[in-house]
Every structure is written in C-alpha cells, then in structure tokens.
Amino acid sequence: MATVKEAAVGSSPASSKKPEEPEKVPLYAYEKVYPRTVKGRFRSMKTVLVGVLLALYYLVPFLRWDRGPDAPDQAVLIDMVGRRAYFFMIEIWPQEVYYLTGLLIMGAIGLFLATALLGRVWCGFTCPQTVWTDLFIWVERKFEGDRNERIKLDRQPWNANKLLRKLGKHSVWMVIALLTGGAFVLYFNDAMTVIGEIVTGQAGWGVYTFLAIFTSTTYLLAGWAREQVCLYMCPWPRFQAAMVDEHSMIVTYEEWRGEPRGFAKKDTGFEGRGHCVDCRMCVQVCPTGIDIREGSQMGCIGCGLCIDACNSVMDRFNLPRDLIRFDSATNQLAREQGRPVAKVKWVRPRTVAYAVLLLVVGSLMAFVLATRDTTEVSIQHERSPLYVQLSDGNIRNAYTYKILNMVREERVYTLRVKNLEGATVSVIGIDSPDSPDAAIRLPVNPDTIGNFRIYVTAPPSALNGRTTDLYFELTDPDGHSTLSKSLFAGPRQ
User: Fold this and answer.
1) How many domains, in total, are found in the chain?
2) pTM value?
C-alpha cells in the first residue's frame, strides 16, 4: 500500500512542476542617455542659471577686498596656512568653526524648504552635478550633433570623422575640468599668485594634488557618469519623499487627460482618445532618461524640460498645453474629477516649520557674528608644581595666559586680578608693578595671539582653604572687559 502511494505521489504532475522564481531585477543597469535639445521656458531658465552659477564659481576668486596692510586682499579665501577664512568683510578664525556648522544647517533646512515647496528644484537647476553635466552635454552637441546624430555616431565604426569629433569633445571636456579644478584651488590660495606658481611648476604638492583630484572628478562625473550620479550615487533622492506632501509642486503627467495614448498625425481628431500622441519627446529630452508618464520617480530631477517638450507637441496639434506640468497631487486629483482647482498652498505646517527654523538659525548666526568680541582669552593654571612657597612665606602660582587679538592693529590690554587680597602680578618680559592689586599692561600684536607667562603672588592669609577662586579681568583699549575664572592654590590651612 505504501508503495502504491509513493508511486502515485511520484507520478503526480504537480510534484514535478518547479515553483516559479521571482523575476530578478538588477541593482545596476546602465543604458546611455542621449538628451535631446529642447526650447522653452524651463530650458531658458536652466541656461541662465548655468551661466550665472558658472560665472560665480570661476570669477569669485578674482574679486578683491581691501583689509589693510599685511592682510590678504582676496574677497573670498580659505587660508589654510594662515588659519583664517575670509568672506568680504567677515573674517573667521579656527575656533569659530561653528559658523560653518550654522551654514551647513541653514543649507540643509533651505533644501528641505525648497523641496517641500517645489520638489527637486535644487537638483534640476542648481546642483553642481546638474550644472556641469549641462555644460558638458552642450559641448558634446557642438561636436557630435543632437540626439539622433550622437546615437548614429556611436553606432558607426571608428573612422577619421568619428575620431576627430570624439577627440575634440574630450579635449574641451578636459580643459573645462582643468579650469574647474584650478578654480577650486584658487579659493584656498591667493588667486593671482598661485596661477603663476601652477604654470611655472613652483606650486606645492598639495596644490597639484587637489588640482588633479578635482579635474579628474569633474571629467568623470560630468562627462561620463552624468545621470548615474543622480540615480545611484546621490543620497538625496532616497529620502526626498519625506519632504514633499500632497501640496508640493512637482513635475506631473495628467494621465486622465493623456490616456489612452497613441500615435497621431496633424489635423487628427482626438475624440475618444487621450491627448498624448506617444511621441516620447518627454523621454528624449530628460537628462536621466525616465518616462514621466509612468508617474513620479526617483530619477526625476524636476528640471521641467519634459514640460517644454510636451508643450511644443501640444502646440503642433492645437491642443491645450501643460499635459505635463508643475502641479500638486491635490490639484491633479481636482482636475481629474472636474472640480475647481485651488490656489497653490505655499503656507502649510511643514513649510512654516522649515521657514521658521531657517529664520531662527540665520538670525542667531547674524546676531552672534554682529556682537562677537574681538578679544578672546585662554588661561591655564600651572600644575607642576601647583604652587611655590617663597622664602618670605608668600604663595606664588604660575599661569599661561593667551590673548587673541582679532583686530588688525596692535592693542595694549590692562590686566588685574580679583578676589585675592594683597595679590601682586608679574609677567615675564614685561615690567610689572610691585604694589598689590595694581594693573599690568599687556601689548598684543595685530591679528595674532599674545602668549604670556604670569605669576600671581599672595600672602597665605588671602587664601580661603587649599584653593581659592581667582578672577583675571582683561580690559581692551575700547573699555570692554573680559573676566576669566581660575584658581589660586596653596598649602592646606
């Protein structure tokens, strides 16, 4: 009986049928994109922004700003050797790196706000990858032609014409990449000086290293990787969905109006069918090669070129424009249902929250920058030994006292100690008064740190226990005082 069952099971068709395996989707799939030329409102906006942003990047290092003698006159400069960052009239010291943190926070919040309002408008118009890729594609068109010509050129066998076109394109790409890397280096060195050093081979290895790094990355990312950076390398598309909502203005396709799509000729009637003529112009002009008709996708950078392309086709068929448009999900639903379309809802909880955060951080940074002190003090009590008892019975403590003079002129500060009766102050290398509680004058050179070795001497009767709080009051020439707390050590009472 068992044998019969086994035979029956073994002969069952169901048992011999293998379960279907799920279709494997590759994690990376490359298909070269050949963006087509298009004219329209968004293309014009992109062209203007590309020109402005590139001009700013390449020309800003050559702007001058007079900061007085012995100071760099480059308007925007990150001086790694001198440990300063200059932005026109603003000078940032290393210990003020929190300003950089504030700028990064403001940039992140600003990006969140822009995305909540207009989707990936940053990616489509102002992202460096987008700007330089746009420039490289423009060069490619000049040498190889528009989309169809470039496809044809890549498919044909190598010949003299193809070699010259490719060589010319890549040569110009390398020149642009070299200028890009060189401009980056100029932000960290005096532009007028380092250009001559680079050309004559006298620049340091660090200059040539960064020049090579940014030249090669510009050439590879803008010339070869292009949309692959947006699709696979950039983290922003992965979490941008958390910033948008049903009121965000993003690139949308009016499926209710465009479907069912199909090929059409001019003067064709559109009764009983959609307005989309399936020309694929929206796909051909897209820098990342996506089909916006399939809905909102991670590859859409919100540049609006598909809108320009679709509008040109709608004009040709005498159909209403904006089959593809910047619109919100709420308005798209209203259009589909034939309801009145509401005005764009710019003010809503998340945009208000982002705007308030941006205003608070910006205001705080501006306030701190406007009211920051031009003098900073650092004091360190000598620990070996903590104190010395002199032959007359008095107690002496040693301190390292540093004064940061952030003004480009010599300043003479006045120092006195408080909370220690009968104390006298002496500074190595500076004439010091012998009378108790007298002030001492400390000169500090312009735009530098004054380092002083200070001795404070007091009678044992002035101590309150083994350690006593001691305050150093430093007064600048303008009358502003800085109070620093330390301690005065002595033997156990």
Assistant:
1) 2
2) 0.83
